[in-house]
Amino acid sequence: MVEDTRLIELIGVSKEFDGTMALDNVSLYIRKREFITLLGPSGCGKTTLLRILGGFEMPSQGQVLFEGKDLLPIPPYKRRINTVFQKYALFPHLNVYDNVAFGLKLKKLPAAEIGVRVRRLLELVKMTGYEKRDVEQLSGGQQQRVAIARALVNEPEVLLLDEPLGALDLKLRKAMQLELKAMQQQLGITFVYVTHDQEEALTMSDTIVVMKDGHIQQVGDSKRIYDEPQNAFVADFIGESNILDGVMLEDELVSFCGKKFPCVDSGFAPNEAVDVVVRPEDIMIVGEDVGMLTGRVVSLLFKGVHYEMVVEAGGFRWKVHSTAMQPEGSRVGISIVPFNIHIMHKQLEPDAGEDGA
Predict the structure, then answer these.
(1) pLDDT under 70: residue ranges of the chain
(2) Which of 216, 232, 248 is the last residue of a domain?
């Protein structure tokens, strides 16, 4: 269970590379026993933030605290933080056992203690019986398990994972998502995970930090990030969305597509220009005579679990997910309940001030 205790704090952290800001005044805290994911497109700053935590980069400005103490002067090998890299970085001349035992041997621990720790970690990552196997003979998933065991055998308080599932095929990647979450819960340590894969973040995380252009866009749990995006970037990046220009006429009443729609949002200025977000699965296909908007199905795809339709209605091309198929070219109505219409302030850049999990 996540503890309500701040383990790591980043305060006003910036990092500049050759005049380009990779991180711009980022503030964030990470709690004990938390699985926190840094999510965003390439170049958003998530790996730079991870490397600062690991000690592989120094910020241009700002503070990083670990249990309230300055972390920055401490070299990587002395931090209670270990890293699993995207390329795994296993030693090709060592077998599985010796790869996992490497850090313990550097500490000159007794051979018996090393053996106990290595066997326990190999059992945890389901690699028992592979001790003498050459790592180059292992599959990608097996190599990843060895890399995780090697990082965990030193009993860190925090494990950093830099897109560790990126090289795996889809089926194995999904299986490893569940295994990593179970492993983190069993060990009771903090995982800081970097990915650009939204589904991966939603599946595993206690907390998601959505990033863009060196800024934090939103921090929250999976449900909050998906159901209540703070801006159009988050809504578009997390899952699929219909995003429209609208006008908030008054509390709980919004206008878009030339019509007025009841909603549940309030606190906007009268006639404020807003972004309106409706998820494809929240749109109901109804009869043309009862629809809030009417239009025509212009494309149809079968996605296995549901049909994906594009419905042209109200001057907008709506993406709709439904288990009920409507043929291409058919006339339909669409209906949206007020709870499923999400209203957001229009903003060019999010507030880059204090953010927390």
Answers:
(1) 167, 348-357
(2) 232
Is 112 in the same domain as 58?
A: yes
This prediction has a pTM of 0.85
What pLDDT does 356 receive? 47
If you ran DSSP here, which 8-state letter would residue 294 be given? E
CB 190 within 8 A of CB 159: yes
**Token pair belonging to 331:** 């006339």
Give the CA distances from residue 31 to residues 2, 25, 241, in Å, rounded to whole numbers and listed in that order: 7, 20, 31
Q: In three state form, how does the secondary structure of 37-62 look?
A: EEECCCCCCHHHHHHHHHCCCCCCEE
Same domain for 217 and 254, yes or no, is no
**Dihedral angle sign, alpha carbons of residues 170, 174, 175, 176:** positive
pLDDT digits (tens, 9 = 90+) for 287-331: 999 999 999 999 999 998 899 999 999 999 999 999 999 999 999
CATH of the domain at 189: 3.40.50.300
Residues spanned by the domain of 66: 6-232
